[in-house]
Amino acid sequence: MTSTFLYKLLKQSKWAFAGLVLYVAVYFTCMYKKMDMAFFPYNNMYSNTRTNELTCYYLKINNQRISYSHFMYWKKDFLEQSVFKYADYVNHHQNNYLSVYINEKVKNKNQNAVLKNALTPGKVDFKNWANWYATYAGMNVQPNDDFELVKYKLQIKNGLSSILDSIILCSTKTENDD
Amino acid sequence: MMINFFSSLRTDSVKQLILLVFTEFLFFLISGVGYFSISNAPYFNIGVDPLYWIFYGLSIPQTIMKYPILAVAFDSATIGFLLLSLFKFNENWIRCTVFLLLLYYITLSGYLGHRNFQSGFVWVLMPLMFKSEKSKMLAFEMLRYWILFFYASSAIFKITGDGINNINHLSSILTQQFFPYNMEQNFGMRTMINGFLTNHQKITQVLFFGAIILEMSTFIGFFTKKHDKLIGVFLIIFHLFNWLLMDIAPIGQLSVLSIFFLIPFKKKKHKLF
To answer: Are residues B124 and B139 in the same domain?
Structure first.
């Protein structure tokens, strides 16, 4: 009994013990509500089956797809996730998850605006984002370059992949052509 | 001074721990996701998390991202404080280091757009922020239970989720994970293994059960500290397979797993150094 962690913690500091009990209570509440936070991670990765639709997003510069799989892990992940998250933002009429959440929860217009201004990126222009993304991916970006954000659907049969379909979500082509 | 440092490194578990975090942070910078590398990124996406709200509400990550000179300063400051903690251990240096690592993680994952679980490099130095040896050891012990729960809960979610009854579960995940490699015709050993596994669902499902067993090994740790090293080895194997098969690298998480090897939990006396 005297060698258990909780007993030792209680002997060391009552405040630390109380803090731990509170932490555990909050953690279990978060888990019950399926909330994932930095201090309370909800690690259910890959426990549920995903949909069979294989999709991914790529940015094209002058009709050339910007590839990222050859980069080291974290940069590859950053490029993959950035384009995916920006496409998601475009698909939701330039709203991300938090702005939708704030719209639902905060009805007061002033408070809503203050929160969204501080916690969301606001309206992120496609050309601005594409310029940054292409530069980050190591492309030599020129002012007149054309960008397209494309969604791909892929099928893999017997280890061979083929593109089923592709949709252009955003393009700067018409802007430049005009 | 350097000779003294290296001779003490062999016996000093705290220095070894800080060195591991330093190495992981260097990997982040070399990979190209340091503050400076990702500066000027215009889009971020944070979830419903008060910790993120504090930092982003105060516009700290946004300001660092906006000015490349600040990004360089914060990259350098994080390296600087890690080196200071390594060469001249002091709780105040550690506190600054932990704050900078936390800020980096909050910035990186906010601009990445999702909360990556490889966050151990932030938590692992937190116990060293306390003054007394006893408090440090108790905090490490709490961190140990936190890691055990992190992986044990993951095993429970996998057992109770619908994936366990679906023979195609892991093979469909593997297909999605390697989508960019197939799309870009970037083939190598890992894509070959991936191609084999996506076509052999039964073998893939066995690997899924294997992953659950490796994570479940953490349950032992709730009852005894005798097998800590074995648990650590199992978790590292779990992560290395994740890297090989799922393309999820453990960089960021390895240092926190090292506490199973470096921290003397079984000692009766609370002594780290």
So the answer is: no
Count contacts between A and B (CB, < 8 Å): 186
pTM of the model: 0.93
ipTM above 0.85, yes or no: yes
Task: Look at chain B and report how many structural domains it folds into.
Answer: 2
Q: Looking at B107, B129, B151, which one is the last position of a domain?
A: B129
Domain coverage including residue B54: 1-129
Structure confidence at residue A178 as a pLDDT band (50, 70, 90): very low
CB contact under 8 A, A46 and B170: yes
B160 shares a domain with B119: no
Task: Give yes or no for residue B88 having a pLDDT over 70.
Answer: yes
Among chain A residues, CA nearest to B188 = A70
Query: Tokens for A96?
Result: 């991300």
Hey, are the CB atoms on A84 and B113 less than 8 Å from each other? yes
Nearest C-alpha of chain A: how many angstroms from B2?
31
Per residue in B188-232, pLDDT (tens digit) is 999 999 989 988 989 999 999 999 999 999 999 999 999 999 999
